[in-house]
DNA sequence: CTTAGTGCAAAGCTTTTGCACTGCA
DNA sequence: TGCAGTGCAAAAGCTTTGCACTAAG
């Protein structure tokens, strides 16, 4: 058993939740696709390879659970699906919903979150609005696509 | 006829589209609710007061049209509805998808866009990603809610 | 007159829910 | 063994689409 699995089981137990094969299997898919933004349908298709009898509703419920436990992040890329990505795998601080979306190839890149600190401070001072979470989407053209067009 | 209506009619004609009462009526609702983020259902309810025989499908089609003509902005506040707001009514530069969403009362405030310029410049330099549009959502607690809690 | 636009109803989509069954603790 | 969790199918809710009809140009 990997250390992520042990950690996951502990969290489930701490919340009085049961450890099931389905939950382990879904988390495993997120681990195998770190950095990728998966729709529930995509997760379902992946999980079925290892666990063919799983139901779509279970995947929906598990994904909601993982999101509430803050083990995965919810991302809306406005493509008609709600997407999720694993958030705490890499050593660095968890990057929170910051995405570069290429309008040409559709690729999604991530970038760090510290760049917004001064902005949030300014908003607090001028508007009295206390920011506790943020979601930033930047649309444009990635390096590859720009090079291919030239 | 207001100057916004003349402008709208010109745009429709320039695109080879017909000027219909329904389209005028929907635009009128956006004008009356400048700064508000309306769902299609809400727009439908408002329009029906002036134009009871309008159909929901027409509102959906009109809103898509207005969005393509860049007369309104599409906003997704993750509440299950796609929302729209009029974008070019005030004299200032059009504020592009920048929202402060209060987690307590649900109120949505807007803020200016120039604050992101340095961030985008940095991204271009370091990642080679050219940003052409952006969408920023900041979640937190607004002044009112913070004062009421104390 | 021609055909884009409309209204209605049906269908399409993702997501949620009810309920009997299963399996973890 | 008891009850949380699951699987299936049905339902829900937003949005789109097909089609006959209406009205703008």
SSE map:
The structure is a homodimer of 150-residue chains.
Chain A: H1 3-14, H2 21-32, E1 38-39, H3 40-50, H4 56-68, E2 72-76, E3 82-86, E4 98-102, E5 108-110, H5 117-127, E6 130-141, H6 143-149
Parallel strand pairs in A: 4-6
Antiparallel strand pairs in A: 1-3, 2-3, 4-5
The structure holds a DNA duplex (25 and 25 nucleotides).
Q: In words, what does this structure look like?
A:
- Two copies of one chain form a homodimer.
- With 150 residues, the first copy, chain A, is of the alpha+beta class.
- Chain A has two domains: 1-94, Arc Repressor Mutant, subunit A; 96-150, Dna Ligase, domain 1.
- The first copy, chain A, has six helices and six strands, in the order H-H-E-H-H-E-E-E-E-H-E-H.
- Chain A has helices at residues 3-14, 21-32, 40-50, 56-68, 117-127, 143-149, and strands at 38-39, 72-76, 82-86, 98-102, 108-110, 130-141.
- In chain A, the strands form two sheets. A three-stranded antiparallel β-sheet of chain A has the order 1-3-2.
- In chain A, helix 2 crosses helix 4 (56-68).
- Strand 6 of chain A pairs antiparallel with strand 6 (130-141) of chain B, so a sheet runs across the interface.
- The structure holds a DNA duplex (25 and 25 nucleotides).
List keywords for this structure.
three-stranded antiparallel β-sheet; 150 residues; alpha+beta; 44% helix; 6 helices; Dna Ligase, domain 1; homodimer
Summarize this, please?
The structure is a homodimer of 150-residue chains. Chain A has 150 residues and is α+β, with helices and mostly antiparallel strands. Helices cover 44% and strands 21% of the residues of chain A.
């Amino acid at each position: 058993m990997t250390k992520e699995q042990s950690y996951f089981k502990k969290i489930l137990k701490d919340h009085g939740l049961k450890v099931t094969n389905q939950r382990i299997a879904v988390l495993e898919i997120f681990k195998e696709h770190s950095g990728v933004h998966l729709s529930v349908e995509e997760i379902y298709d992946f999980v079925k390879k290892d666990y063919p009898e799983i139901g779509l509703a279970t995947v929906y419920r598990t994904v909601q659970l993982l999101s509430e436990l803050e083990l995965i992040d919810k991302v809306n890329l406005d493509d008609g699906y709600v997407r999720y990505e694993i958030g705490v795998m890499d050593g660095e601080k968890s990057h929170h919903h910051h995405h570069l979306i290429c309008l040409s190839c559709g690729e999604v890149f991530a970038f760090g979150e510290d760049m917004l600190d001064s902005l949030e401070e300014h908003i607090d001072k001028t508007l009295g609005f206390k920011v506790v979470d943020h979601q930033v989407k930047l649309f444009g053209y990635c390096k590859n696509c720009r090079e291919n067009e030239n």
